[in-house]
Amino acid sequence: MLPVITLVGRPNVGKSTLFNRLTQSRDALVSDFPGLTRDRQYGIGRIGPLRYLVVDTGGISGDAQGVEALMQRQVQLAIAEADQILMLVDAQDGCTPGDFAIAEGLRRLGKPLTLVVNKSDVGDPDLLAAEFHALGVGDPVPIAAAQGRGVRGLMDGVLGHPAEPEAPTEGEQPGEDEGRIRVAVVGRPNAGKSTLINRLLGEERVVTFDEPGTTRDSIFIPFELHGRRYTLIDTAGVRRRARVTDPIEKFSVIKTLQAIEACNVVILVLDAQAGIGEQDATIAGHVLESGRALVVALNKWDGLDPDTRDRVKTQFARRLGFLDFAVLHRISALHGTGVGLLLDDVDRAYANATQNLPTPLLTRLLESAVTEHQPPLIQGRRIKLRYAHQGGRNPPIIVIHGNQTERLPETYRRYLINRFRTELKLAGTPLRIELKSGTNPFHGRRNQLTERQIRHRRRLKDFVNRKR
C-alpha cells in the first residue's frame, strides 16, 4: 500500500500550495483568503524517492474550539489513516499560540510528525526556522512551497525510511498473495461492486445492501477458479466530495486509491441505470493515471429499454472515450448475465500488461509507422525516430530514441500509441511512450568548419597578395 501523508496546520500557512507542489497539479484551490479549503483533497505524490498519497486538510484555528476539533472524529480518522504527518507553520507569522495548541494536540497522538516551516524565502531559512524549536515536535524543515525550494529535500527525509507494512487486511495472510492476480473492483457507491464479487465467488462473501456506502474499507479476498489464482479487492464507493458527509466515508477514498495502486487489474463497475456521470470519469482517470490494466463492467444492463441503452452508449463514448483500450462488458451482477467472461478478460489484460516486448519487434513496428506517416518538420528539420525498446511493464512502456523527440507533437505521440497497441494487440492495458533524444555528434561542427574555411581563405588571400 502507498504511504499516506497528511498536511495539517493553521489556515493560510500554505497546505494547499504544498499539496499542489507535491502532486504536481492544481487540484487544490489556493488563495490568500484563510479557510478556503473546507474538505479533504487527495492526490498521488510525485516528488520524493517513493510514490505516496498526500491528503490536504482544512485549516485548524488552534484556539480552544480548534483544539477540540482536532480530537473530533473526522481529524482522528485523518490522522489514523496517515503514516506521516506534516505540520505546516508560517515563517512570516512566527510562532503563534495556535501553532503551540496544534503541536500539543498532534504530539499526544503519537504519529510520526515533521514540522515544516513554509514561506522561508523572505530571509535566512535557518534563522526563520530557529524559533519553531519551541514547539517541541522535532527539528523544523524550512521550505518555500510556492517556489518549490526545499520540497525535494523534505520528502527525501520523510520517505527515506518507508513505512512499516500494514497488518493484513481481512481475508489476506502474509505471503498468501504471491502468484495471484490482484483485481480491484472500483466504482461509485451502489454500482454493484459487492454484488459482482459475490457472484464471482459464488457465495455471500461481502455485505450487500441497497444503500450507498455499505462497504467502508477495502477487503482482500483470495480465491481460485479453474486453477487460476486471484485476490479480489472490494473497495468503498467513490463519489463527489460535496455529497460525502460521513467522516468514515471521507477517508475510505484513501483505501480505494491505495487499492488501485496495489492491484494488477481494475474492474471498473458502472451503473447503467444511473447513467455515466462525471464521477465515473474521475475514477477512470485515477485508474488511467496509475497505469493499471482495466476491464469495464457496465452493470444493471438487463431490463433497460432500447432508448436508455442508446443514451448510456452515447454517455460512455462522450465521457469515457479515453478508455478505448479497455474491454467493455454489459453485465447483470445480480442475475449473473455476462459475469462469466469478466475473468477471461482480466487474465488477458494482465498478460498484455506484463508481457515482454522484444527490441527488434518494436523497432520494426516503429520503422513501419514512420514510413507510413512521417513525423512533422520542425523549423525545416525532420524529427527522426531511430529505434525503440521496452522500458517497463504494467503498464507497458516503450522508449523511443531519436533526434528532436522533445518537439514531437502530442498528436503524433497518440498515433504511435495507437499503432503499437493495434500491432501488438495490447487490449486491456494502457500503453505509455517515452521519448529520448541522443546527442548530436555534429553539434557545433558547422561553426568549426566555418572558422576553418575563414582561416583558409585568409591564408589564400595573403598568398595571392604576396604574389602580386
List the total number of helices: 14
Classify the beta-strand content into a percent band: 15-25%
Low-confidence parts, pLDDT < 50 over ≥5 residues?
31-39, 66-71, 162-176, 206-217, 239-251
Number of distinct beta strands = 17
The figure for the number of domains is 3
Question: Could you list some keywords that capture this structure?
Answer:
alpha/beta; Rossmann fold; GMP Synthetase, Chain A, domain 3; six-stranded mixed sheet; 17 strands
Quick structural summary:
The protein is of the alpha/beta class.
Description:
The chain is 36% helix and 21% strand. With 468 residues, it is of the alpha/beta class. Strands 2-3-1-4-5-6 form a 6-stranded mixed sheet, with helices on both faces. α9 (278-290) links the parallel β10 (265-271) and β11 (293-299). α2 (64-70) runs parallel beside α4, α3 (73-81) packs parallel to α8 and α12 crosses α13.
List the helices and strands and how they pair.
Elements: E1 4-9, H1 15-23, E2 41-45, E3 52-56, H2 64-70, H3 73-81, E4 84-90, H4 97-109, E5 113-118, H5 125-130, E6 141-142, H6 151-159, E7 181-187, H7 193-201, E8 219-225, E9 228-234, H8 247-262, E10 265-271, H9 278-290, E11 293-299, H10 306-319, E12 327-330, H11 342-354, H12 359-372, E13 377-378, E14 381-382, E15 384-392, E16 397-403, H13 410-424, E17 432-437, H14 445-467
Parallel strand pairs: 1-3, 1-4, 4-5, 5-6, 7-9, 7-10, 10-11, 11-12, 16-17
Antiparallel strand pairs: 2-3, 8-9, 13-14, 15-16
